[in-house]
Amino acid sequence: MRSAAWHARIEYGGAVAGAGFLVAPRTVLTCAHVVQDSEPGLLAVSFPNRPDLGVLPAVVTVDGGWAGGATDPGDLAVLELACEVPLTPARFAPPGDGPGPALPVLVAYGFPQGYDEGQLAQYRAVSTTRIAGQWVQLEATTAHGQPLTHGFSGAAATLPDGRVAGMVAQVAGEHGVRVARMLPTEVLARHWPGLGELVPACDGDKDPTRRLYALVRRAEAAGPICSPDQLFVDAVGDFGPELPPGGFGSLREAVGYVQFEVEQPAEALARFADRLTELLDGPAEPVPAAAPAPTWAPILVEIDRSGAGADQVTVAVSAYRDGRPRPIGTVRLPRAEVREHVQRGIDRAFRQLAPDAEELLTFVLPRDLLNLPVAHWACSADDSTPLGCAHPVVVADRSRHHSARLRHQLGKQWHHLTKGPGTALHRIDCGTRERPLGLRKRLREQEAGLAAFGAPPDAAPQHFEVGLNMPVPVLLWPHTGCADAAGHSAPCPGTAFLDALAPCVEGVSPAELPRHIQALREEAEADEEPERHWARNLQLLWDDPRCFPEPATSLHSPVA
Question: 331 - beta bridge partners?
Answer without folding.
Answer: 315
